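To close the section, here is one more complete example, presented without commentary so you can practise reading it yourself. The ligand is SAJ.
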Amino acid sequence: MSDRARFFAEATWTGGVIGLGYVGLPLAVTMVARGLPVVGFDVSEQRIADLASGRSPIEDVADAELADAIANGLRLTADPDELAAADALFLCVPSPLGRHREPDLSFITAAAATVERVVRPGMLISLESTTYPGTTDDILVPAATRGGLVLDQDVYVAFSPERVNPGAEMKTGQIPKVVGGVSDISTLVARAAYERVVDSVYPVRSAKTAEMAKLLENTYRAVNIGLINEMAQLAHELDIDIWEVIDAASSKPFGFQPFFPGPGVGGHCIPLDPQFLAWRAREANFATRFIDLAEQVNTRMPFYTADRVAAALNDFGLPVFGTAILGVGIAYKPDVGDDRESASIEVLRVLEGRGAQIAVLDPVVGSERIASHGFRPVAPGEQIEGFAIAVILTDHARLDLERISDTVPIVLDTRGAYRRAGIARDNVVPL
Ligand code: SAJ
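Output:
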């Protein structure tokens, strides 16, 4: 069978996943579940050891799923040379921002060096890490062909953005996947490969198109979150309940998608992805005003939230300084245990800087992780008398909102949690 044909036939081919984190591990497990043997590689020997022992560090992959994958064709290794056994390599490595909010492609370039080391005739190389348009063409094609292989003859290169949605029901195989090759042939090969992995593939004419599509998806979110955060501040000035306004606007059956104000924007997608586009735009002397404005509004929200806490205390003649404040929820979004880039933590840091005594209740993140941030953890059943104010920062489903509002004199609800739960309390102040 010709090298290229294997991806088109129903024949089995071997996948190689580089990076077994919140994107790579679900992808590897999904491939095995669909009958494809996989070489799962990670540079972290500890990560490989944990996985090999059946412990999944990823919330969206249960230990049982991992055990099944290992029993049915997932080979775990920290040795990059073992990737030479794969027919297709999927790069699922971090793409953070550097200290000056510029793209940090060090993980992608390291993975590209691994590709260069193991690439062989017939291989498909697909980058999944979020990055600016042009990265796949500029970094992955040279890595795949520098050893003499010819693009579209010996090797195929594409970009397919990850669409992992932490904590959601929908799993990797069920989420439609955009796929763009660096050429028509590479798009065809990548499309055929991904059709064995996910239910629905959406091919586009270039890797750049696919890179840009991913950035549009999340820039759309960041800009609309920035809009509603600004609207929330305006509504407060006009003594209007923004949460009722959003619910009312949501009654429109078309042309409106609700976004919700909050203490800021966290996680490792929405605050970061638009900056990849802004950075690439600056290279083209193009001003991305919407991205920049949304960034300004969203990054100010922790300070605005802290000011609202101060105002609520002030209404009771209380200072921030020396006052006991209960932060409720430090995860970056509801019902996940991930507190990376969490705006909640930024709010509490600002209040701490103004002299408040902070304690944190987050039944999902847990006490150990809370303490690792230097905050006093409050266990789910622990008494919460003595706090002057509770700030609902992340609205986990399992929060006991009634106990909080029945015990703590003031509650600033930055997430509309009480309204959504249908709990009306005079001492609950909405953002
Ligand atoms: N947020 C708001 N208001 C909103 C929505 C979100 O303040 O209306 C905040 C959240 O509290 C959080 C941050 O923004 O701190 C990001 O929230 P998110 O719901 O976008 O969650 P993420 O960061 O996990 O985004 C992922 C993205 N998935 C991928 O990039 C593959 C995003 O495209 C998904 O739409 C999102 O999950 C999702 O829908 O949950």
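Once you have examined the tokens, check your reading against these statements. Residues 207-237 form the longest helix (31 residues). The longest strand covers residues 123-127.
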